[in-house]
What does this fold into?
Amino acid sequence: MKYPNIVRAVFVSRPNRFIATVRLDGRTETVHVKNTGRCLELLIPGSEVWLTEPGSPGRKTRYDLVAVRKPTGVLFNIDSQAPNTVVKEWLSNRNFDKVVPEYTYGNSRIDFYMERGDDRFLMEVKGCTLEVDGIGYFPDAPTTRGVKHINELAAAASKGYKAVLAFVIQMEGVFEVRPNIATHPEFGAALLEAQKAGVKVLFLTCHVEPDTLEIVTNYADL
It folds into this structure.
């Protein structure tokens, strides 16, 4: 995926989960943060950030904050909507007969339902923006919804679906995502049980630019 326009700014503060203040062209601007996670290790005063201007009518803020450079120099895309967008693009090149986003299964809305021949797939997508010592971790805040979705995937696997949990790694140089049990032990326990039930876990590595997020992983068996 590619953002149609992008501008550089400097992060100042984050008054709440939804907005941040930045310095842009010598002025202070309030912007929308497209990620409600904590992002404490990323959104640090003085950090380089990148904004996109959707141009949607009736908005309270002119810009969305979508990317940030960590003090280590690594660029992170933190747009929580981007993982589903890039996975949809990626799946379109995987020779599926059908790809259906936002598929209702059980009591959940699963991100993707796919068909290939007689095989039926269910895929849930999670974006990873938390990195510690070269390892990705998820989640960065407790997610009861995430646990619910993993349990639904495990149930689907037991009924013959090819169930997949895909972590989109929204930074370069990281190739593995582990459950962040320090923050949400229930997620780690649910993930372990789901894998035992046959849920396949994918780590989708990406190429990241201020205006671009692109999956570069190639899984021959999906």
The two ends are 21 Å apart (CA to CA). The chain has a mean pLDDT of 95.
